[in-house]
Write a structure and sequence with these properties.
324 residues; alpha/beta
Length: 324
């Protein structure tokens, strides 16, 4: 068993066997660069030298009814998170315009909460139209939407629905008790059934095992999710995970590479937690570890990086922004 043979299967879109998955995970640290090189080959074969760039706005913040252990916006925790209702369409349009000037092509409207009421639905509909009016592809992350809500928003111009599964079904109850994993999976299926570009992934570094990481990737593969955001825990004071140490860059890079082997044709977007895990010295390494997309700018409640620095790092790696 060797990396080259497993990579050839990835180039053909063939899923590694269980034994091969364990082999990928168990690579010694001195072989990390070789693992990353093979993951990058698969990524280049599928996406060429293009990187999909997206950005978000925290459009409705705080007092969330859900108790996700890693999230600063939960009303169950004592984190110092901003609290405000849904921003106006003018404010959201202005944020989209700033993201477009920074190089993003997709723009996500992210709102705290589980369910969406009528007033917010009206606001989301207006916001989607406002984002599209800025020449951006509008995406929405509002919690759990049903098929009728998704259809309404699609008619308004919505292109993408973002709803993370976060981790495996087995580990999920340790992270959230206020809704079920099946509800999240049903929401992802509803977005796919509505013909939307679904962005669904998870967060690493929350205490999960490698088995949990693999299980999530395989579920996303089976569901047919086209875009997979990869987040890494930033421990936030006031949340249950405030004392957990961040992942090492080496482990995070191995996760990215593994996901490229398991999801060879899916957009792997590096999102929250990148500054915490990689810092400034190693932030560019995600570009040659199998990632094909990147969130630029700030995250929900934590700071991101400088967009121009990301563009410069990308070009030094021989990559260029995609026109998604």
């Amino acid at each position: 068993m060797n990396l080259s043979a497993i990579a050839r299967k990835g180039l053909d879109g063939v899923l590694p066997s269980d034994a091969e998955i364990l082999f990928l995970i168990a690579q010694a640290p001195e072989r990390l660069n070789e693992l990353l090189e093979h993951a990058h080959r698969i990524r280049m074969a599928r996406f060429g030298n293009k990187v999909g760039l997206c950005a978000i706005v925290n459009a409705k913040s705080g007092t969330c009814s859900e108790d996700c252990a890693f999230c600063a916006q939960s009303g169950h925790h004592a984190a110092a998170s901003p609290q405000y209702p849904l921003l106006s369409e003018r404010e959201i349009a202005a944020a989209a315009a700033r993201a477009r000037r920074s190089g993003a092509t997709r723009f996500g409207i992210v709102a705290s909460g589980k369910l969406v009421g009528g007033r917010d639905m009206d606001g989301f509909e207006a916001a989607v139209k406002a984002v599209a009016g800025q020449g951006m592809t509008p995406d929405l992350s509002p919690g759990l939407l049903d098929r009728s809500q998704l259809t309404r928003l699609k008619k308004a111009g919505l292109c993408g629905y973002h709803h993370n599964l976060e981790t495996s079904a087995a580990y999920f109850p340790k992270m959230c008790t206020t809704h079920t994993y099946d509800e999240d999976v049903d929401a992802v299926r509803a977005g796919l059934d509505a013909g939307l570009y679904v962005c669904s992934g998870g967060i690493s570094g929350i205490g999960e095992t490698w088995d949990d990481r693999v299980e999530l990737a395989l579920l996303l593969r089976d569901l047919g999710v086209p875009s997979v955001p990869m987040n890494f825990l930033t421990p936030i004071p006031g949340t249950p995970l405030e004392g957990r140490a961040p992942l090492s860059p080496e482990e995070a890079l191995t996760i990215i590479a593994l996901y490229r082997f398991l999801l060879p044709d899916r957009q792997l977007r590096i999102c929250g937690g990148r500054p915490t895990v990689f810092g400034t010295a190693r932030r560019s390494e995600v570009f040659t570890a199998g990632a094909s997309g990147l969130m630029i700018g700030d995250y929900l409640t934590t700071r991101g990086g400088d967009a121009q620095t990301d563009l410069d790092d990308m070009r030094r790696a021989g990559l260029a922004p995609a026109k998604e």
